[in-house]
Write a structure and sequence with these properties.
The complex is a heterodimer of chains A (318) and B (256). Chain A is of the alpha/beta class. Chain A has 11 helices and 14 strands. In chain A, helix 3 crosses helix 4, helix 3 runs parallel beside helix 5 and helix 5 runs parallel beside helix 6. The longest helix of chain A is centred in the middle third of the chain and has 16 residues. Classes of the chains: A alpha/beta (318), B mainly alpha (256).
Chain lengths: 318, 256
């Protein structure tokens, strides 16, 4: 195991007037991550993803618990952990007035890499991350996707054994997102273990070898995306309606074949045993009430359905 | 040595940023130059009770104060830049590397000290054009004192910026602390007999900047043997060291 944690805990105290408010951000996280996998930490904003990641990246000390990363004890030798890991923060990490090449060289040298070697590594990183074209332009002129690639390139310039990427695709357009996925897969191909956080279920599903779902500072489920989805038996029927969504939901909620029902924007999501037999019944019920049906689809459960089953909330509304 | 290597790395980057935004060097001396142009002409008659009879004598009292003013204010507001760096994620990115935490501070503060000395040089040259004279060796020693002040004030500023982490708290905090320090240092007019009431002199003696102003003033007046010179240097050196270690601890400590 390249990362192992036991009972990691961290709470923050903030003062509001006279009262001291305590927020338990991470409450007893246990994880074991194998070398060479892309591990995804999936959860809504404020679930404790970033705090856990920052603990593992030596930025904050846990209140309790222990962790070993690449064979080094996090609490005893944070300096040695730093040498073996790379970390890319959520909000970016570059100066506006400096170019990607200058940033990469400085970053390499902060790891004690010699000047000539730092130059070589910067060249190589610019090439593999497809940044060569604008390598010498100031970072402030880059697009969101380009800037994010610079962030990741900076995080792995010293060829760490583990790379922690905090929401590497948040805020990117679909094309840049796909590009970033390619980069992350390439890192794994080079032998790196990649630990990412995300609140996109499709990202966790498509990119990660294994996923841990975190909510309120606790891991509620862990496994491969396929295994997690297998835990949810049955199928999901999504019904699109022209208004009157609450009336429809009231009518369908009580039907025996509907296990669970939720409203997502314009749609109703129904969890049923078998979609093929549920659909005609749903259509009959709605047409009987003269409700305009726009669309109806059946699909296999997604990680969002797993999240819903474990927490009682949808990831989107959480 | 690792500390020197790391400090040099950070210093180089900070110097590069300064070179790319050179306007700030000149914006920084705008105020002292205004004082020199619009306030200094009032000094010769105003300082007459101290026995001042010529412009040159008036400048010898005023210019050192002006330079200390530049060092205090220039340094104390450096934290603004650090808050921007915090927001851009640069501090966090540095803190996950094995780079020395002391170097993260020293690289920045040394850059500030050097910029300050350059600014002080420009202001002094302008003052020379207006009729100010002093011994070069003494001026250089005074510049060392100014560099130490800048190291101290910018370190304090960085430490405070890391604690408060937003401009809305940082700006009023720095403004309110710097004003009494400024008034009690005798920068504008010397806090001495027969000007100052005794209680004011007594209070001012608790302000470290009072001693640095006194020391710089003695240097510019050519009294290098005056006790205020070594006292000023010693106090600044001790406080600068303390400020550096206090602030470097903030860089090392985990921050939310």
């Amino acid at each position: 195991m390249i990362i192992e944690t036991k009972n990691l805990r961290k709470s923050f105290h903030s003062r509001q007037g006279r009262k001291i408010k305590t927020v338990e951000a991470v409450c007893g996280v246990d994880m074991a991550i194998a070398e060479g996998e892309i591990f995804g930490f999936l959860g809504p904003n404020g679930a404790g993803k970033t705090t856990t990641l920052r603990i593992l990246a030596t930025l904050i000390e846990p209140d309790e618990g222990m962790a070993t990363i690449a064979g080094v004890d996090l609490r005893r030798e944070p300096g040695e952990v730093r040498r073996r890991i790379g970390y890319v923060a959520q909000g970016g990490s570059t100066w506006d007035e400096v170019s990607a090449r200058e940033e990469l060289i400085l970053q390499a040298r902060m790891y004690g890499i010699s000047k000539t070697e730092a130059n070589k590594r910067a060249d190589r990183a610019l090439e593999v991350f497809q940044l060569t074209e604008f390598a010498d332009r100031k970072c402030k002129t880059y697009s969101g996707g380009q800037r994010r690639r610079v962030d990741v390139a900076l995080g792995v310039i010293h060829e760490p054994r583990v790379a922690f990427l905090d929401e590497p695709t948040t805020g990117l357009d679909p094309q840049s997102r796909a590009h970033m996925w390619e980069e992350i897969r390439r890192l794994r191909h080079e032998g790196m273990t990649v630990f990412i956080t995300t609140h996109y279920m499709d990202e966790a599903d498509a990119l990660c070898d294994r996923v841990a779902i975190i909510d309120n500072g606790e891991i509620v489920a862990e496994g491969t995306p396929a295994a997690l989805k297998r835990q949810i038996s049955g199928e999901v029927v999504t019904v699109g309606l022209d208004g009157e969504i609450s009336t429809a939901s009231e009518m369908l909620e009580t039907k025996p074949y509907v296990r669970k029902l939720e409203i997502c924007e314009e749609n109703l999501r129904l969890y049923v045993e078998e979609g093929a037999t549920a659909v005609p019944q749903i259509m009959r019920t709605l047409e009987g009430a003269h409700l305009m049906l726009k669309s109806i689809t059946i699909h296999r459960p997604s990680l969002d359905d797993v999240f819903l089953a474990k927490t009682g909330r949808s990831l989107r509304e959480a | 040595m690792k500390l020197i290597h790391d400090t040099w790395l950070i210093f180089q980057r900070q110097a590069l940023l300064q070179v790319r935004e050179p306007a700030w060097v000149f914006i920084g001396i705008f105020q002292p130059v205004l004082y020199l142009l619009l306030f200094a002409p009032l000094l010769r008659p105003a300082l007459a009770p101290l026995g001042v009879t010529t412009e040159a004598e008036a400048y010898r009292i005023f210019v050192p104060g002006l330079l200390v003013l530049l060092a205090i204010f220039g340094g104390l507001f450096k934290g603004f830049g650090l808050i921007a760096e915090l927001r851009a994620g640069i501090i966090e990115r540095s803190r996950v590397t094995p780079i020395s935490r002391l170097a993260l501070l020293l690289g920045r503060s040394l850059r500030d000290a050097i910029v300050l000395v350059a600014q002080a040089g420009i202001v002094t040259m302008l003052a020379v054009c207006f009729g100010f004279t002093a011994h070069l060796g003494h001026i250089l020693l005074a510049f060392l004192m100014l560099a130490l002040i800048a190291l101290m004030t910018s370190s304090i500023s960085y430490g405070v910026a890391l604690k408060v982490r937003n401009e809305d708290t940082f700006a009023p905090l720095m403004n309110t602390t710097s004003l009494p320090l400024f008034l009690l240092s005798g920068i504008m007019l010397p806090i001495t007999e027969p000007f100052a009431p005794e209680w004011l002199i007594a209070v001012a003696r608790f302000n470290p900047f009072y001693w640095t102003v006194e020391g710089t003033r003695a240097l510019f007046a050519g009294n290098i043997a005056d006790s205020s010179v070594w006292q000023g240097l010693l106090i600044t050196l001790v406080l600068a060291t303390a400020a550096i270690f206090w602030s470097a601890r903030s860089f090392a400590r985990s921050v939310r």
